[in-house]
């Protein structure tokens, strides 16, 4: 499949799912539209810890893209993007295809940082892309071993709580405090939960290299073993930074409030791959950008005025505790328990169902 598209959506991230969902409800603009996705499914990160904890089946945590695309007359182009040329408005796929479009929209997420020097003695499993992570985890489960998780943010904490029951020994290494940036009361709850689950938490350990079977923080050996999971926050996709699009110092695409690239306004970017002030990188903000992105893509195609994205000042954090419960933080208030887990489950299932046309 090739040729010129009016609009090409690159990446089946949370914001693009929101765009497709609105089109499902009859708001699709006219024109030839394509979606490039690495895999046949969009995985929902909010349910990944529950999947690993054995609370969900894989098919409950992902959205099959072909059916959604067919329903909204979007051509699904399965393949891994390798490059983007903003001068010709085209993208390159790993299989050699080049696809060009009048308008491009990027919602490609981010990737964990990989310490330098990874070698054969220590198996490294980045948490993204999810499809590859789940395959690797399935293989590891056949012969459980001690492991370390790098990254003490929400993802690292949720993963540690989900995996602790099935791993002989689990260490969580965090360069800052665990859940830095969250209220102290949530931190306290999480650290207690991790201790109860038998997870060894080591804070202030900035692992930057792997040497043999050792994780190194500077010159110090921080941990030795055979397996490490990378959940080290959001890092930019290297090929995006090299594309010629204006990027911030960390390689994320700088966008205006209308979610357009500062250097190439025919390119939109949303979610983790974009850089916009007062907009943290999380699924919550990527989802919030969906309706504005949908409105602006329609406006761009029809030549109408665009609307700004105004990030919410606060966001709800609901962290899975690995046993069906959850920990909550909202505007300085924190709580935990099974009822919150039930509520999180309702919200997560609703997210999936809305993209299956069930709600
Ligand atoms: C375990 C875990 C739990 C989390 N829980 C939460 C939570 O509860 N709440 C929350 O707000 N945030 C959570 N996050 C963070 C959240 O996952 C991200 O911030 C969010 O997914 C970003 O959304 P996005 O739309 O930018 O991109 P994503 O949802 O990551 O989607 C990016 C898409 O682009 C595709 N893609 C990437 N590269 C290519 C390529 N080269 N070619 C083709 N396609 C490509 C990917 O396959 C993917 O489909 C969690 C993260 C993890 C790891």
Offer a few descriptive terms.
single chain, about 350 residues, alpha/beta, FAD/NAD(P)-binding domain, 2 domains, seven-stranded mixed β-sheet, five-stranded parallel β-sheet, 9 helices, about 30% helix, about 25% strand, globular, binds flavin-adenine dinucleotide
Word description of this protein:
The protein is of the alpha/beta class. It has 2 domains: 4-111 and 235-315, 3-Layer(bba) Sandwich (FAD/NAD(P)-binding domain), CATH 3.50.50; 123-233, FAD/NAD(P)-binding domain, CATH 3.50.50. Helix content is 29%, strand content 26%. It contains 9 helices and 22 strands. It has helices at 14-27, 48-52, 65-71, 130-141, 154-163, 184-196, 238-241, 283-302, 338-355; strands at residues 4-10, 33-37, 41-43, 62-64, 75-78, 81-85, 90-93, 98-106, 123-126, 147-150, 170-174, 200-203, 209-211, 214-217, 220-224, 227-230, 253-254, 267-269, 274-275, 317-320, 326-330, 333-337. The strands form 6 sheets. Strands 1, 2, 5, 6, 7, 8 and 18 form a 7-stranded mixed beta sheet that branches. Helix 1 (14-27) packs across helix 8 (283-302). The longest helix is centred in the C-terminal third of the chain and has 20 residues, at 283-302. The structure holds flavin-adenine dinucleotide. Flavin-adenine dinucleotide binds next to helix 1, strand 2, helix 2, helix 5 and helix 8.
């Amino acid at each position: 499949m090739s040729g010129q598209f009016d609009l090409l959506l690159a990446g089946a991230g949370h914001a693009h799912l929101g765009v497709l969902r609105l089109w499902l409800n009859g708001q699709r603009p006219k024109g030839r539209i394509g979606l490039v996705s690495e895999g046949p499914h969009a995985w929902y990160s909010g349910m990944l810890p529950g999947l690993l904890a054995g609370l969900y089946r894989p098919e409950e945590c992902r959205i099959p893209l072909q059916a959604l695309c067919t329903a909204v007359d979007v051509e699904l182009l399965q393949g891994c993007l390798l490059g983007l040329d903003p001068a010709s408005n085209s993208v390159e796929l790993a299989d050699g295809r080049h696809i060009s479009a009048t308008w491009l929209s990027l919602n490609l997420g981010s990737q964990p940082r990989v310490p330098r020097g990874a070698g054969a003695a220590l198996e490294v499993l980045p948490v993204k892309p999810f499809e590859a992570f789940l395959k690797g985890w399935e293989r590891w489960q056949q012969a459980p071993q001690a492991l370390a998780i790098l990254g003490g943010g929400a993802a690292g904490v949720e993963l540690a709580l989900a995996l602790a029951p099935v791993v002989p020994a689990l260490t969580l290494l965090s360069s800052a405090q665990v859940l830095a940036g969250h209220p102290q009361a949530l931190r306290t709850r999480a650290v207690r939960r991790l201790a109860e689950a038998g997870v060894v938490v080591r804070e202030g350990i900035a692992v930057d290299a792997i040497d043999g079977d050792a994780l190194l923080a500077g010159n110090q050996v921080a941990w030795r073993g055979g397996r490490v999971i990378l959940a080290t926050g959001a890092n930019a996709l290297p090929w995006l930074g090299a594309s010629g699009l204006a990027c911030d110092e960390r390689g994320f695409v700088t966008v205006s409030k209308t979610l357009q690239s500062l250097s190439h306004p025919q390119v939109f970017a949303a979610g983790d791959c974009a850089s916009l002030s007062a907009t943290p990188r999380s699924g919550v903000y990527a989802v919030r950008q969906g309706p504005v992105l949908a409105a602006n893509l329609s406006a761009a195609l029809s030549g109408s005025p665009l609307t700004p994205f105004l990030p919410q000042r606060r966001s709800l954090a609901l962290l899975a505790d690995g046993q069906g419960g959850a920990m909550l933080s909202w505007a300085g208030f924190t709580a935990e328990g099974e009822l919150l887990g039930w509520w999180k489950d309702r919200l997560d299932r609703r997210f999936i169902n809305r993209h299956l046309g069930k709600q």
